[in-house]
Each structure stands twice: as structure tokens, then as C-alpha cells.
Specification:
Elements lengths: L1 H27 L9 E6 L13 H6 L5 H13 L3 E7 L7 H15 L5 E5 L9 H7 L4 E4 L4 E2 L6 E2 L4 H7 L2 E7 L7 H4 L5 H26 L3 H10 L2 E2 H6 L5 E2 L2 H11 L4 E4 H7 L14 E9 L1 E3 L4 E3 L4 E5 H13 L3 E10 L1 E2 L1 H16 L4 E10 L1 H4 L6 E4 L4 E3 L3 E7 L1 H6 L26 H24 L3 H7 L4 E3 H6 L5 E2 L2 H12 L7 E6 L5 H6 L6 H23 L10 E2 L4 E2 L4
Parallel strand pairs: 1-2, 1-10, 2-3, 3-4, 4-9, 11-15, 11-23, 12-14, 15-17, 17-18, 17-19, 18-22
Antiparallel strand pairs: 5-8, 6-25, 7-20, 13-14, 16-24, 19-21
Helix pairs in contact: 3-4, 4-5, 5-8, 8-9, 13-14, 17-18
Length: about 600
């Protein structure tokens, strides 16, 4: 009895301490009110994630971690906020995909249409590395200031692909992989030592399309001929004065000079960081959705590789997973919610499991059958399985730089018996059926096995292309012509009927309004499904680590990540058999 009371006392003390911490956190979450003559500060040296399914408990109490959508929303709100007189942004690295950059450029352009200035400054655009995407983002601002010691490294895009065939031969690992069709290039990293002709064609077309968009965007923003931008790229990296002479930069100045000029222009200016503006603007906690009123729209995120089961985050590979249980469950919840009239499905995924993709595809169909239109907004990548989950939507909106398509399939295994033999490890086995060994990495495909693999690849490709034809109102022949595993930019995909319109969140929401039959100025209540987790749910799930401990663990993860990625690529951690997975060429850091 005494032990029971002692346990109850300990629990009560713990809950009391937690309540005190919670109260202190609430007090710390009350930022000073936004003042007149406010200048919003943005930092694009950090990347803004597409989606955060959860945060640590400490982060939930202490700060708002901005997502791409929240940055876009903040700029749109600031354009209409009389208290905000301008925006100043630090730009230099911008570690985000090109489609995300375009999403932000569009938001900056909408902000500038309010008549308020948007100023960008940079210490350097690339220090011994390329900074094409970062300068592309900066060009959307009214003025660009560069630190006198900085450069503009607009050197052009360089995409490269690793090929492991030689390493596999040294390790005595045999790739047994099939693909549909010649442009489905993921297996090439294991079966080839360099690009095949179709592989090179697809990657070169991707790089050319992306760079064309960058050049055109910079030329229009800086009021320069495209030829001059290309010439500047061929001469890059440019020193500060060279960048000014080329019309790429307005002035060489340090940060303090930029801020002093803004303070002189706007007397008593109050510089407010983005996180503080988000916290003040109806966001007391990161897990609390923005209070909105109006007809209800469900926002569902499909971010990361498509897998069966729950969505999640892998810290080793720094990647999110689009779990079919989570996403399909979110669709079912939205379907069953009588207040939900439409669904905005944000997809940013290189694909993955065919079965999981098909599960999510079915829920898109069910939503439409329930009279709830589905509009897809594509992020940086929505290809292979990422396109599979999107193809049945009422409308598909992509950025010009979005990587999409890759309508194809591959599969098989890496046979590693020779590697283990070299290490002195041998295997013996027993089985019950003729094909019991078919999935074993220690055995090559036996007689008749490969025929079953080929039949499976054909079945998946026929199902994939058939559903594309149905969803996009195309013939199978028309689909096959743009399929065969080939990737396209959003711009090229629009020309081929794979997407409906180019743009970001704003264009997708216009499509949602059109599908619902509501006016442009009518309020809509956009609610995320499934509901973001609260701090107490994070605590119960064990996602409470922060501070020094969290930083130390993160550092260990960063060290382990390259080795884990190589092991995964070689099939030692996980065989590369996800049939609808897209393996993208790797751009040089900084782009």
C-alpha cells in the first residue's frame, strides 16, 4: 500500500513539473505584438521542409519550424498586412529543390505586387561551389546586395549519377534486375558503368529544361537579354564588380549597410523574423492549425518514398516516408467528414511501393465517387509512384521545374553470395517449393523464375499505363509514348498532357475553388488531415529529445548517413527492389 502511494506521489510530482514547464512555454510563446513599420526578415540560407509530420516536444513549445507552405502563407499575408512595409531576405545557399525555389519566387512576386519593397542580400552566391538556384531565388527580389568579398557562382547545372557496376564486380555481387522500359534508369546504376543513350537523353533534357527556366527567370527579373545571362554563366564565377557590370547585382554592401539603408527609408522600422511573425499571426504552437473559417478543404500531404504502413521519418537517410496506411486513412477521414467539400493533395515523392501507391490511388477514386474533388499540387518531385498516386486527380498542378512522369517499373535483386564467400561466410538452406529461393539474395534466379519476374513487370506497367490513360483521358498508345520510364519536368509534362497547369499552392487553391464553385474572395477553411500531433502526443511517442542531446545524436546520424546510403544502394541494407522508385541524378551541392 505504501509503495502504491509513493508511485502515485511520484506521478503527481512529474505531472506538476510538466504543467509548470507547459505554463512557462506558453508565456514564452507570447511574442511582442507586430508594430507598424515592420520589416519581415527571411533566411533562405536554411532549407524549408515540404512537410513536418511531427516535431520534438521542445520545438513544439519553444519555436515554430517554418515549412515551405508557411513561408508562402506568411509572404501572402504580409502583402496584405498594413503593418508590414517590406521584406529583407538573406539568400546565399537556398538548400531546396528547384520547384520549391519557384514556389518561393512566385510568393515574392505576389508580395512585390503590393507595392512593398523586397530586398535580398548575400554574403556570397557560392563559395567554391555552384549557387544557381540561390541566385535564381534572389533575382525575384527588387534589389540584390552582395558583400564586397562575395562572388556570383552562376556556373550552370551539373547532374551526375553514380554507377556501381565496377564495384559490384569487385565484390562479386551480381545484379539481376529488369525494367520497363528503356528510360526507367534506376537499375542502370547497378548494371552499367556509364549512361546508356536513353538515360543520357533523359538526364540531359532535365538539366537543359531546368537551366532554361533559371536563365529565363533571371533575365525577366533583372531585365536582361537571355543571351547576357548565359554569357555570365559561361564566365562564372563572377567577382563582385563583374556581377554588377553584368547587371546581376545592384550594389556591393555588408549586411549592416543594407539594414541601415532600410532604417533610413522606414523610420523606427521594427525587424521581425519569420518565426516570430508566424507565432504572432494566429500560430501559438507549431501543432495548432491556423484558425480559419469558411467551407472546408482537407489538405493531405504525400511526402517521401511510398511505403506500406505508417508515414514516418528516417533520420539515417534524412527522408520522409509516405505511408499508405497514413495517407489512405487521411483520405478516408476526409471522405467521411461531411464538412469537407474538396481535397488538396500535396505530393512530393520519388515513388516506391507499387502496392502502396495503388492503395492511395484507390482512395483518390473513392473521394471523387463521394463527390469530393481532388486537386494535386506537386512539389520538387512527383514521379514514378509519386505520379501514380496523383494521376487520377481532377486536376494536377506542377511547378515548371517539378520532376514528374517516370511512368514505368523495375525490379529484381542483387545476388550477394559471392561477396559473403569472399568474407568467408557460407550459407546452406532448405526449402519446400520450387520457387522458395526466388527472393533470396544468395541465389540467382532459377529456371522459370525470371519468367515470373518479367510477367510481374509487364502486369505492373500495363496497370500503371492503363490507369494513366483513364485518369488523363488518353489512349494507351499516347501514354506509352510519354511513359517508358521517362522523367519530365513539369513544363514538359504540361505539353504532353501529364499535368493540367503550372504553378504552386496558389494555383492549386484556385483549382480547388473552381471545383467547389466558390468565388475567389470567399473564405475557405483549409484543415490538415491527419491532424498534426500535439506536444503531449509527441511525449507519449517518445519524440521529446531536443537541446544538446538531440544535437549530439543528430551529429552521429550525419556521420553515419553516407555509409548507410552506400550500403543501401548496394543492397546490403535494403535490396533496391521498390518497383516504382525513381532514382534521380545527384546535382552538385548548391546547384
Amino acid at each position: 500500500m505504501k509503495k502504491t502511494w509513493l508511485t502515485v506521489l511520484v506521478v503527481l510530482i512529474f505531472l506538476g513539473l510538466l504543467a509548470v514547464l507547459f505554463g512557462l512555454a506558453i508565456r514564452s510563446q507570447r511574442p511582442a505584438a507586430i508594430q507598424q513599420q515592420t520589416i519581415l526578415e527571411l533566411d533562405f540560407e536554411r532549407g524549408y521542409p515540404e512537410h513536418l509530420p511531427f516535431q520534438t516536444l521542445t520545438a513544439s513549445f519553444i519555436e515554430v519550424v517554418p515549412t515551405l507552405r508557411s513561408v508562402v502563407e506568411a509572404l501572402d499575408r504580409a502583402a496584405e498586412d498594413d503593418r508590414v512595409v517590406g521584406v529583407v531576405a538573406r539568400v546565399g545557399a537556398a538548400p531546396m529543390g528547384l520547384a520549391s525555389i519557384q514556389e518561393l519566387r512566385d510568393a515574392v512576386a505576389r508580395f512585390r505586387r503590393s507595392g512593398k519593397p523586397a530586398i535580398a542580400y548575400s554574403e556570397t552566391f557560392g563559395e567554391w561551389r555552384a549557387a544557381n538556384a540561390a541566385f535564381y531565388l534572389a533575382s525575384a527580389f527588387d534589389q540584390i546586395y552582395l558583400q564586397p568579398s562575395g562572388d556570383v557562382s552562376l556556373t550552370g547545372l551539373h547532374y551526375e549519377t553514380p554507377f556501381y557496376r565496377g564495384l559490384l564486380e569487385k565484390l562479386d555481387i551480381v545484379p539481376s534486375l529488369g525494367q520497363r522500359y528503356e528510360y526507367k534508369n534506376a537499375p542502370n546504376s547497378f548494371t552499367q558503368t556509364s549512361y546508356t543513350a536513353p538515360h543520357r537523353e533523359a538526364v540531359q533534357a532535365l538539366a537543359d529544361s531546368h537551366f532554361e527556366q533559371i536563365v529565363r527567370g533571371i533575365a525577366e527579373a533583372r531585365e536582361l537579354p537571355e543571351e547576357d545571362v548565359r554569357d555570365a554563366s559561361n564566365r562564372s564565377p563572377l567577382l563582385g564588380q563583374e556581377a554588377i557590370a553584368a547587371g546581376l547585382v545592384d550594389e556591393l554592401a555588408y549586411r549592416d549597410t543594407v539594414y541601415a539603408q532600410l532604417e533610413e527609408r522606414f523610420r523606427d522600422a521594427d525587424f521581425v523574423p519569420l518565426s516570430r511573425y508566424l507565432r504572432q499571426d494566429y500560430r501559438p504552437f507549431a501543432w495548432t492549425p491556423t484558425p480559419v473559417w469558411g467551407r472546408k478543404v482537407a489538405l493531405i500531404y504525400g511526402v517521401g518514398g511510398v511505403v506500406r504502413g505508417e508515414s514516418g521519418y528516417d533520420p539515417i537517410f534524412d527522408s520522409l516516408a509516405m505511408g499508405s496506411d497514413t495517407v489512405a486513412g487521411a483520405f478516408r477521414e476526409a471522405i467521411e467528414d461531411d464538412d469537407v467539400e474538396a481535397i488538396l493533395f500535396r505530393v512530393s515523392s520519388p515513388g516506391g511501393s507499387y502496392v502502396a501507391s495503388d492503395t492511395i490511388w484507390r482512395e483518390v477514386i473513392r473521394a471523387q465517387e463521394a463527390g469530393k474533388p481532388v486537386v494535386v499540387s506537386m512539389g520538387d518531385v512527383a514521379a514514378s509512384g509519386g505520379y501514380f498516386v496523383a494521376m487520377a486527380a481532377d486536376a494536377i498542378v506542377a511547378q515548371p521545374a517539378t520532376v514528374t512522369g517516370s511512368i514505368g517499373v523495375y525490379g529484381g535483386k542483387l545476388v550477394s553470395r559471392g561477396l559473403w564467400a569472399k568474407a568467408g561466410i557460407s550459407f546452406d538452406d532448405v526449402g519446400t517449393s520450387e520457387r522458395a529461393r526466388i527472393w533470396s539474395g544468395n541465389h540467382a534466379f532459377g529456371e522459370g523464375d525470371w519468367g515470373r519476374i518479367e510477367e510481374s513487370l509487364d502486369r505492373i506497367y500495363e496497370d500503371f499505363t492503363g490507369k494513366v490513360a483513364e485518369g488523363r483521358s488518353m489512349t494507351r498508345a499516347e501514354v506509352h509514348e510519354v511513359a517508358r520510364g521517362r522523367i519530365w519536368t513539369g513544363q514538359d509534362a504540361l505539353e504532353r498532357g501529364l499535368v493540367d497547369e503550372l504553378g504552386g499552392f496558389d494555383v492549386a487553391m484556385r483549382r480547388v475553388r473552381e471545383a467547389m464553385g466558390v468565388d475567389e474572395d470567399e473564405d475557405l477553411a483549409v484543415e490538415e488531415f491527419p491532424r498534426p500531433r500535439s506536444p503531449f502526443e509527441l511525449f507519449s511517442e517518445g519524440r521529446w529529445i531536443g537541446g544538446r542531446t538531440g544535437e549530439t545524436l543528430q551529429g552521429m546520424v550525419e556521420i553515419a548517413r553516407p555509409l548507410a546510403e552506400l550500403a543501401r544502394d548496394l543492397g546490403l541494407l535494403e535490396a533496391p527492389t521498390d518497383p516504382l522508385r525513381l532514382w534521380l541524378p545527384r546535382p552538385r551541392e548548391g546547384r
